[in-house]
Amino acid sequence: MTWHLDEDATQRYVNGDLGAAHAASVEAHLLACAKCRALLGARIDESRLQATWTAVADVVDQPRVRAFERLLLRVGVPEHLARLVVLSPSLRIPWLLAVSSLLLLSTATTHTTAIAADRGFFLFLVLAPLLPLAGIALAFAPRADPARELLVAAPISGIEMLLVRSVTVLVTTTVLTAIAAVAVPGNEWSVATWLLPALGLTTAALAMSRWMSASAAAIGLGAAWLLAASWVALGNTTRTHFVDSFVAFRPAGQAAFIVLTIAAGVVVITQRNAFDLRRVT
Questions:
Q1: pLDDT digits over 220-240, tens only?
Q2: Which one, 87, 118, 222, 244, has least CB within 10 Å?
Q3: Of the candidates 189, 159, 164, which has an alpha carbon nearest to the alpha carbon of residue 277?
Q4: What is the DSSP track for 116-136?
Q5: Rg, C-alpha atoms of the chain
Q6: Which residues have CB under 8 Å from 206's CB, separation 6+?
Q7: How far apart are CA 85 and CA 39, in angstroms?
């Protein structure tokens, strides 16, 4: 060690009066010299030092803002809602890949032989309403949500979190299903008959979460839908025209899902103050 800090250099460094090159040299020297570190430590303002470390900690601990979150913020979504959306398990890559794979598989079966295509089309229409229900079950499953403890402690209402995450799930799965539906042969009406059941079942799951967990409501409705579809498939002795055999895809069934959506929406609106965050999550 050929040099050490003197009183003047130490004070100038504390005041920020040293040039960049000289300050860098001082800092490199301080790493190896305990004597000069002690001299400098006696001159540092404790409040300034604490403020510096606090600023550093804020930058280090600040969560990384993802591209999708930045997009939401730019279009005017409040910061806490944008963070709630991007933390939803249903926006994770594995979930999106799983949904896409299922849709791809069911879509591919509609381009085979006539009988297999009929079954594949039925499978597609049955699968599509299950996807938002599965997304809701995942979004509100305690073990699947890394932000659950934060959400429970956060100043946010149960109905607000329920609606934000449910809309996120519904929009995501609807977009993916709509893209897949473009490749499904058939007229526009028959291909779109999955939409009203998906909306009705999802809205019903929201309404039922007034009395039970959102995950339990979604799983129960999904199981009932799958059981009804299986009953139709097993009871179809001709093994053809599966879609026409399921009342949910006929005009009467579509109308029933419109009524279900409206009724469930009324429950959600009128009972909005009764939704409990802990039960929802």
A1: 999 999 999 888 888 776 666
A2: 244
A3: 159
A4: HHHHHHHHHHHHHHHHHHHHH
A5: 29
A6: 162, 163, 166, 214, 217, 264, 268
A7: 51
